[in-house]
């Protein structure tokens, strides 16, 4: 590596450090916020699809991630995919909306769905931050999604939420103390069933365990939400409608 | 939110002829939804109002009593979710609800 | 004589369902009399709706069985909360049991309901998963957009996860709302008050021209009904070849229009002679234009 390249290389992100800690060995490359590659754990190859530095998911980034998923399906049928989620949500910009970013985000989740159907186990791990559509298109498009202890998951920051809902900030803050459906935070997203749990300590052990689990046929997140008391109605309402009552 | 409940004598002793329900209106600022249902209330009528505007119990009482009286209702339950509608809008929705109930039974 | 139009946009959710389905065929599930209302809104001092702002059930179109959901845009901006979302998820999952000719989603929504944000966000994820499951089982899922709220936020991603999107000229489809972009990125990036800019960037005509929606109709119930009827039984495969084709299409758009800042530049590049007129022309003329452009491309 020459000196210029060393100077221009971005500092190593927490996402890259996390990947290093998860695998026996990982070969990754970074292009802007996108981190991709392959990791090995107990001799098993795992595709890595990650973002760094709280990326904003623009149409171009969503497309690049979808490309990566399609390539894994073609080149390594059945290989598990680990998604390290770290984003500030979708990019808010005129050009992205002109292009139809919702279509790109949907394409990305569609690719992940197909990968799951074709036998790729898809695991999500929220590193620093996951926001709204950025959580929906990635973290929620997995077989199971986990989070690091320091991570944050949210729909919107509380002060912005207060402006939009016209509920005073101190009232919202107070309600957040008791209501898991309202405020930001990994603990709340665990309680509503959107996250399986937190990974801490021996990260490889967590990954090993997640990979070993058999993928379920059904979407069980409503059941988790009910068991954990964070989303007590969704399961039964959905079941009732499905039964046509 | 404030919850108000009103009971009206209706036509005591009237048996329940049929069952049915209708829903009209949408809850929003200055608007309300009214659900009207035929239930056995021994000929009486019941209204339950959940409103975002406090302190208008008397007005609700008047408007609802007039509606029950004007239509000669019995065994009717009215359930209302209100986002601050004016009495005129309330009367309009009540009449629409009744029309919807009758239409559904034709 | 021009027959009177029956506006889809002006109608409520129940009226939309009545107008789209064959008369007398609708059977509602989890209806308002069951009072499955949001437990979260009262905590914030907000009124609830007996149907939670969404009507779901089954019926028929031209005698063919469908499952249908209609968001009530006038209640909380059609936003998705826990119960609202679960009703839609359950409806789509029912398709796996009853195998209708389509699941029809009348979306009219700003996205996730912030008053129960976390439950709403997971709910849109579950709806999307249910859409994929139905599609994978070969059951078409059709989105219809023509309400006042357009289709924004998480619901815009749901829409594009379906087989097909039908929208009226007034329909809008985007992940970010104009006000949100302006609030965060500044008025120079996006002036939310500039209605023409909003329509050009997010409106159904632009979306039809770039291929993000499949059919554009006038704001008329019969037109919607006709377009939905044509979609029955037609599913788009959910396989690798299809996704590669979609990917190529999406990639080409980004490469071709990199750095473009106004939709009119895109329309001109696509072969529209007079981009300034696009907003004015009626649906019929617009569709003839699209047909000409598609013919020229093919």
Note the topology.
The complex is a heterotrimer of chains A (245), B (106) and C (298).
Chain A: H1 3-8, H2 14-22, E1 25-31, E2 34-41, E3 44-51, E4 55-57, H3 59-75, E5 81-85, E6 87-90, H4 94-99, H5 101-117, E7 122-126, E8 129-131, H6 133-136, E9 144-147, E10 152-154, H7 158-165, H8 169-176, H9 186-191, E11 197-198, H10 203-212, H11 221-227, H12 234-242
Parallel strand pairs in A: 3-5, 4-6, 5-7, 7-9, 8-10, 9-11
Antiparallel strand pairs in A: 1-2, 2-3
Helix pairs in contact in A: 3-5
Chain B: E1 2-8, E2 21-24, E3 32-38, E4 45-51, H1 57-71, E5 76-82, H2 87-105
Parallel strand pairs in B: 4-5
Antiparallel strand pairs in B: 1-4, 2-3, 3-5
Helix pairs in contact in B: 1-2
Chain C: H1 13-20, E1 27-29, E2 54-61, E3 64-71, H2 82-98, E4 102-107, H3 117-136, E5 141-145, E6 151-152, H4 154-159, E7 164-168, E8 173-174, H5 178-185, H6 195-202, H7 204-209, E9 215-217, H8 221-231, H9 240-256, H10 263-269, H11 283-297
Parallel strand pairs in C: 3-4, 4-5, 5-7, 6-8, 7-9
Antiparallel strand pairs in C: 1-2, 2-3
Helix pairs in contact in C: 2-3
Written description of the protein model:
The complex is a heterotrimer of chains A (245), B (106) and C (298). Chain A is of the alpha/beta class. Chain A has a domain at 12-154: 2-enoyl-CoA Hydratase, Chain A, domain 1 (Alpha-Beta Complex). Chain A has helices at 3-8, 14-22, 59-75, 94-99, 101-117, 133-136, 158-165, 169-176, 186-191, 203-212, 221-227, 234-242, and strands at 25-31, 34-41, 44-51, 55-57, 81-85, 87-90, 122-126, 129-131, 144-147, 152-154, 197-198. Chain A has a seven-stranded mixed β-sheet, with helices on both faces. In chain A, strands 4-6 form a two-stranded parallel sheet. A two-stranded parallel sheet of chain A has the order 8-10. In chain A, helix 3 packs parallel to helix 5 (101-117). Chain A is globular, with a radius of gyration of 19 Å. Chain B has one domain. Chain B has a five-stranded mixed β-sheet with strand order 1-4-5-3-2, covered by helices on one side. In chain B, helix 1 packs parallel to helix 2. Chain B has two helices and five strands; from the N terminus they run ββββαβα. The N and C termini of chain B lie far apart (36 Å). Chain B has helices at residues 57-71, 87-105; strands spanning 2-8, 21-24, 32-38, 45-51, 76-82. Chain B has 106 residues and is an alpha+beta fold. By secondary structure, chain C is of the alpha/beta class. In chain C, 41% of the residues lie in helices and 14% in strands. Chain C is globular and about 55 Å long. The relative contact order of chain C is 0.11. Classes of the chains: A alpha/beta (245), B alpha+beta (106), C alpha/beta (298). The B-C interface holds B 1, 21, 23, 26-28, 31, 33, 35, 37, 50-52, 79, 81-83 and C 12, 14, 32-33, 35, 42, 45-51, 72, 74-75.
